[in-house]
Amino acid sequence: MPVRIVIVDxxxxxxxxxxxxxxxxxxxxxxxAGTGVEAITLAKTLSPDIVxxxxxxxxxxxxxxxxxxxxxxxxxxxxxxxxxxxxxxVKECMxxxxxxxxxxxxxxxxxxxxxxxxxxx
Length: 121
Known about the structure:
46% of the residues lie in helices and 21% in strands. By secondary structure, it is an alpha/beta fold. Strands 2-1-3-4-5 form a 5-stranded parallel β-sheet, sandwiched between helices. Helix 1 links the parallel strand 1 (4-8) and strand 2 (28-33). The radius of gyration is 13 Å and the shape is globular.
């Protein structure tokens, strides 16, 4: 059974790029969200294996969304996605329950490597 992933990013172009990379490697993108609120709804209804979650988003930010998702489902695996390479932010995400962190722009092989690693954690 393919790995089921929800992509959350306020940029439609980023979601499209990430979807193309994930589908190329055989992962199933079961949903996309542009906000943290949409992400929470999708996670409840679609039961994905992984949520790929942007850190900087309007309304409900990525770290707040991460905390809510983790409180909702302790088994849900979450990979944070950001253009910001800040060690403090990485630490904050990991402390809040993220399983890994991917930087934009995406390197397809790196995305696959991280998703594979997270699935087997």
